[in-house]
Amino acid sequence: MSPPVPSRTPVVAWAAVAVGVLFVGAAFVAGREFLIAHEVITGEPWLADLFGWVATLSWERWLLYAGIVAIVLGVALLVVAVWPRRGTHLPTSTTPVLWLRATDAARASTAAAEHVDGVARAHSSAGPRSVQVHVVAGSGESAQVAAAVHAQVTRALAPLESPPSVKVVMERGR
Amino acid sequence: MSRLVAGFDRLVVALAGLALLLGGLAIVGWCMQIGLARTVVAHTEPRWYATAPQQDWWQWALAGATVIAAVIGVLLLLANLRPNRPGTIELETRDLPEVGTATVNAAQVAAAAAAALTDHPGVLAASGTAVVDRGRRTARITLTAAPDISLDHLRRLAAETEADIAKALDGAELDTQFFVHLAPVEHRASVRG
């Protein structure tokens, strides 16, 4: 069995830390109130006061806003709870597996393109499924250079498990 | 992060979200005079809130809330913030009873393997660390290479390194994972980087 696919810490972990801090805070408030009720310590009973205040509550406009905020926050937490972990790297199909970032696929593409005859300069951008190589041709037929670059870049990225589609864009020299 | 922690996180966050959503819906429903919400709210007696702190169960509720909130809160914080390092690995010494037990530090094994990789031309830098990812002890080796190096060449280096680690650990379980970073291309005769 191989190690798990590298992925960034899921967003839910940060939400869970925030909820954990709230729980610890709630435990502190409830514990403090318990000690006050048992006259171990003295102080204002926050929770008893809160309940007294809730008893006097009648409809006010800000309650509606508070309700809307609670709904929005609740939906956000539910979305975060089911949000999947995102993979961060592209694997090769080799043994052992090499993991590359999309940036590295772009750099490999640029390096491969610049080794092609007739290419003066190249730069690339890459996503998980596609690489776009921008080429400034120095000499030669631009269609031929583009085809050669396409072949060279495709060969360089061939070891990737799902090689991205390669698009070559010819640019005018500046 | 282990799958157990991830599942626990998702459960707690989903329950918190659900509680907020239902509370918010009840308040908004009440404000907008929706029948069901008004019935729910009508059953909440203001006097109940006023007298609750004087009831016998109040102190038990406080004690219960303290314990439950503290346990859940501390579990969430510890599980998510504790460093995820495998520490040491015990080596197989069954054939060598005179040795007793032998352990190696997983992070140091990974760092040593990475250091050996930098001897190869084309490898500009390498670093190694060890983590527990979803329950598996894993040596993570990150190597920075020249952008025109072939992935197949890097694969051969990685295979050698993996064999070295396996030999050093003599069968003890430690996965290896290789991350390749390529250096930016230095353009020939380029006008900008």
Structural class of chain B: alpha+beta
Coarse structural class of chain A? alpha+beta
Q: What do the pLDDT scores of chain A average to?
A: 90
Largest sheet strand order of chain A: 3-4-5
First CA to last CA of chain B: what distance? 38 Å
**Biggest sheet statistics of chain A:** 3 strands, mixed
Treating each run of at least 4 consecutive H or I residues as one helix, how many helices of chain A? 5
What is Rg of chain B?
Answer: 29 Å
Strand percentage of chain B? 15-25%
Share of helix among residues of chain B?
A: 40-55%
Q: Work out the helicity level of chain A.
A: 40-55%
Number of strands of chain B: 5
Number of strands of chain A: 5
Stretches with pLDDT under 50, minimum 5 residues of chain A: none
Major sheet of chain B, described briefly? 3 strands, mixed
Explain what the structure shows:
The complex is a heterodimer of chains A (174) and B (193). With 174 residues, chain A is of the alpha+beta class. Chain A contains five helices and five strands, in the order H-H-H-E-E-H-E-E-H-E. Chain A has helices at 11-37, 46-55, 61-82, 102-114, 142-157, and strands spanning 90-91, 98-100, 119-126, 130-137, 165-171. In chain A, a hairpin with a 6-residue loop joins strand 1 (90-91) and strand 2 (98-100). The longest helix of chain A has 27 residues, at 11-37. Chain A is elongated, with a radius of gyration of 30 Å. Chain A starts with 10 loop residues before the first helix and ends with a strand. The model of chain A has no long low-confidence stretch (mean pLDDT 90). In chain B, the strands form two sheets. In chain B, strands 3-4-5 form a three-stranded mixed sheet. A two-stranded antiparallel ribbon of chain B has the order 1-2. In chain B, strand 3 (123-133) and strand 4 form a beta hairpin. Chain B has six helices and five strands, in the order ααααββαββαβ. At the A-B interface, helix 1, helix 2, helix 3, strand 2 and helix 4 of A face helix 1, helix 3, helix 4, helix 6 and strand 5 of B. Strand 2 (98-100) of chain A pairs parallel with strand 5 of chain B.
